[in-house]
Amino acid sequence: MGVPVTATEVDLLAELQELHRECHRLNRKIELAVLRQRFSSDPEEVRRGAAEEQKWLQELDHRMTRLRAVESHLKRVEEGVPTVLH
Fold this sequence. Notes:
about 90 residues, mainly alpha, 2 helices
């Protein structure tokens, strides 16, 4: 018989899955922005690629921070550690 899973765990796991999908999409956008910079002969297109790369990197950083927070919360829930809300 499996380990009981709480509604909180299910919610956190769903959020983790969504965050992983978002990170994958952002990584792909970053790759495309880098390719645009590398292979475009238009200086304006290269500039736009660099700006987009920075934008997507910042968004990825936010998602990764959230991902670590959700993983930490999930671990506390799985271990039965009370969650402190501020």
